[in-house]
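hiii, so i know i said id send this last week but things got crazy w the move. better late than never?? heres the sequnce for the chain we talked about at the cafe, plus the structure i predicted for it. fair warning i was half asleep when i ran it
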Amino acid sequence: MYKITFSKSLVIITVVISLSSFAQEKPHASMSKDWFLLDPAKDSVQGVSAERTYETLLKNKPSKTVIVAIIDSGIDIDHEDLKSVIWTNEKEIAGNGLDDDKNGYVDDLHGWNFIGGKNGNVEEDTYELTREYIRLKAKFEGTEERKISKKHKNEFRQYTKIKDKYLKLKSKNKQEYDLYNNLYTNVMSATDTLKKILHVDKLSPELIQTFNTNEPSLLFAKAFLLNLYKNVDENTEIETFYTQLKEAVTYYGVIVKYGYNEEFDSRKIIGDNYSDTYQRDYGNNDVKGGDPSHGTHVAGIIGADRKNSIGIKGIADNVKIMPIRAVPNGDERDKDIANAIIYAVDNGAQIINMSFGKSFSPEKIAVDKAVKYAEQKGVLLVHAAGNDADDNDVDGNFPSRFYLNGKEAQNWLEIGASAWGKDNEFIGSFSNYGKKTVDLFAPGVEIYSTTPNNTYKSESGTSMASPTTAGVAAILMSYFPELNSVQIKDILKKSTRKFDGLQVPKPGGQKRVEFGELSITGGLVNAYEAVKMAQEIKPVRPIK
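okay and structure toks below
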């Protein structure tokens, strides 16, 4: 959080930047970047014990390769720490323009992109709230409730709620964008002006203080920047603040320009028949996309090369990552997610990681069918619980394990985000939770992993906790291939580390609650305990 106070024309403005996307929880300076791989007893951090597991329980043990599909924004398949673990479709001949394996997708050598077309890729998209508002507006705008038939009363009332929410959020985010954009413009203008006049590349409070002038605009620039230095946290570099502020402008700019924009239509790029929910023959084979940062980070957590002595170590040591691009900067579409799940299952994925979510699912029936298909084929689905500090027992988060008919998928794990330490550093303050809907928590705060162009970065979110869990699941499937997905899920849940009576800050507030009340198991995922339990489990006939 940054607090800046500055004055102009005798108006005092206080700006507080507190965005979960930028102001992430930071570990202690001494915290190891690979903390999430470490062991609670041996290393005094709440990691998953992956290193201890390999060094003891699994040393010199045989394993089978497990295919993990990642439905996400795209993956940099050429990354130095990922290229050796990227899945290859052995039945496809690269670049010949043919569907060699007759699976309906041409040249899908390393996966498929369901948000691309012949002329490019979707990078941004609207929110599902916006799309629902557009759909219902076409039916009900300008109609009085008294004139609505009894058959459509409930849908009309839903429209009024969605309209109210949409207009409020659109206005709020536009105000945020204007605020941060104006602040950023003022900051950079004042900085550039004084740098030029003082003939320096870098400013400091001391240097600015020595600058004397009677020019009103320069006096404002001087006072503005001195106030900025005064109010920015003393542990924060001013350049870091500039970067964070620019990220805020970009973040809200995308929301305004695309997320809540009724006029934006991403499907023009794809060229599919969007009204045909079950259409499958669309997309392209560009699994990287324009900005594969999120998916690349997720991929590294699961399976970054553990043997190449560069970069990082993924959790699982014998996996192939199947990239499936279906998540834009905005809300994913049910049609694309359903097709992505089906593609993963049909092409041999044993685990599917889904680090995305939204609050509406208008075509849930299609997603349910895909989830049911995965369940029938014995594929484990691992899903991020969300980053809104919400109770998922109360607020919808889609996709979900619950079918429209009320039944529950048995191959599903829902994951909240934990941190490295204790007290305020035990769980992510942003993490969704749910005693009935979230299975367990896993490391998801300041997770250091792969990012595009052979780079690495720490990120926080349940988006990181989900692949942490998927990685542990992959260890079990790899070393205990006789176990099916339901057994793997049950082992992961039963082997979680418990903390009887532990009080933690409830996500989104200061109130303290028992950690055990925030999920079904009340525990943290742990590879060491899971492997020990797997060694004692008798296999059953695998689900076909």
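btw The chain has 14 helices and 17 strands. thought thatd interest u
miss u guys!!
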